[in-house]
Amino acid sequence: MKKKSDNIREDQATLRETLQSHYRACQEMRRYCPGVFLSTALHSAISALAPCVNVYLAARIINELAGQKRREVLGALVLAALGSAVALTVLTGLLLRLKEYMYSKWDARKEHIFADKMLSLDFVDVDTGRSHDLLSQIRQNRNWGNWGLQVLISCFADLIRGLAGALGAMALTISLFTMPVPESAGRFTVLNHPAFLLGLIVILSLATGLGPVCHNKAEGYWTRFAEQAKLGNRIYGAFLGLFIDRSRAMDQRMYNQQIIARHYLESENGYKSTGPMAAWGRGPIGAWEMLGASISAVMTGAVYVFVCLKAWAGAFGVGSVTQYVGAVTALAQNISLLIQTMGTMKANTVFLRTTYAFLDIPGAMYQGSLSTEKRADREYEVEFKDVSFRYPGSESWALRHVNMKFKVGRKMAVVGENGSGKTTFIKLLCRLYDPQEGEILLNGIDIRKYDYRDYMDIFAVVFQDFQLIAQPLGENVAGSREYDRDRAEKALIDAGFGERLAAMPHGLDTMLYKDFLEDGVEVSGGEAQKIAIARALYRNAPFIILDEPTAALDPVAEAEIYSKFNDIVGDKTAIYISHRLSSCKFCDEISVFHQGQVIQQGSHEELLTDEEGKYYAFWNAQARYYTG
Ligand code: ADP
Fold first, then answer.
1. Which of 336, 361, 386 is the last residue before a domain boundary?
2. Among the residues of 313-393, which ranges form H helices?
């Protein structure tokens, strides 16, 4: 038998899912920005109820003016109307300010939800790109229709406004039905018949129900458009900035990339006048919206007729006519708002699925809690014990049966051709991935059992594709806004950046790159690498790992760094990864990687004695290359 849920299209959501997913979104909102709910709820409720107070008092005043005209009653009513108008205006204004303040706070903090998740993800999920793909979908949904967490706050505000407004309007409407037409009105007493009450309720319900249904039908086209909008938005995001991207200026001139970009910007633009959204707008969206508006106009007309007839017959004063017409219209509007908001929430649930798919990416790596004890003696020993690893989804082993042991204070080199597994070895050492076989031990204990941050604190790595940020030099080196200037300066000098630092206009306070400051300094690849090395030195961790640290340096700079390296790293354990053997020959121990395996280990001299070995062959090949 077909279950009901089988009939639900992927671009639709049930009421239950809608409520659950928005409840969860609200919890996230409260966690990241407590107070945003209360301020929104207060503002929405007060601004929805304020008109009810005004309408009520205005009706009383008109009734009194058209009726007994008692001065003291009129005076009291006018005072109450003025006082409440002033008080409510001031209160609404203050609450608006509070709400706006909380909104902007939430707007900024919303990003933290995603940033926190991104940072807590297992590296594998970042590396495979799945998380980036979801994140980019979330951003696109937000950009093209405010969907996802973005629309949450306005939905919440509308729900409270609708609820408070409907309750206020109901309170003002009750007497419309309870105040009968007097017997003296003759034929008009028929208006007291319950059928009129029933009829009005039916018209009101139909109008309030059908109006938003029409609106939601129209809104449904947005979810239908989602897939195309996402693609269009991606293209827009990727290609629109192409023309102002400085780093592409040369390629663009040479290869006319803008022609391809313009083609896609045009062809995938779903909003163009010949696109589906425009066609739907002219057709079904417009028709549904028109029907919704017509139904509510008919309802207002029916209410007018009923209220005016009752007033004509003497059930209440002329002032009450404005009250009832206003209240019944407000009741219908607020119920419509509630139904429409539910419709928006249902549409939004489909987009929240992507948000949760990202937020729910599980952390599969075991997180231990042992401390690395931050040993003052820095007596650390790391051991790879028969470690094998292959990347997720890959058939071949990137590392196979790797055994290696290194003690603090030693200088180690890992050499091998490209693709031999050197970087993978470092990724495993830094626990970016866990091996499928074997184990990695720190002082005899599996590294999985340590607290991750604690464990990472003993390493300072300069990755090949390190990144600096467009902020002052010193902050880049220290990774913090507050830092020890002497230490940062020493690290830069040790990394060979001393002369350049001396020539910099503002020393450590020099802004790197021109993203934020006109007089920011552009650094070359080699200079950036030195800064990255200084950053690792500043960390003052017991292990310093340099993955192809000199790849972007010219031979002179390379020689300069290596000649000083032993001094620079001092008593730290240094692991160099390089395919330039000349850089590694002064290490205590060299491990030669080949196709994921360690095929030779020993000092430069020892390895050279094995004339059959890979190292000997590498060395001779490279020596020939260097001596030209
Ligand atoms: P090296 O640093 O010596 O150049 P790597 O450790 O980067 O070598 O790569 C070892 C092997 O693992 C290569 O075959 C490479 O193609 C593969 N590899 C590296 N990174 C990934 C990845 N993220 N996903 C799948 N395979 C990878």
1. 361
2. 318-359
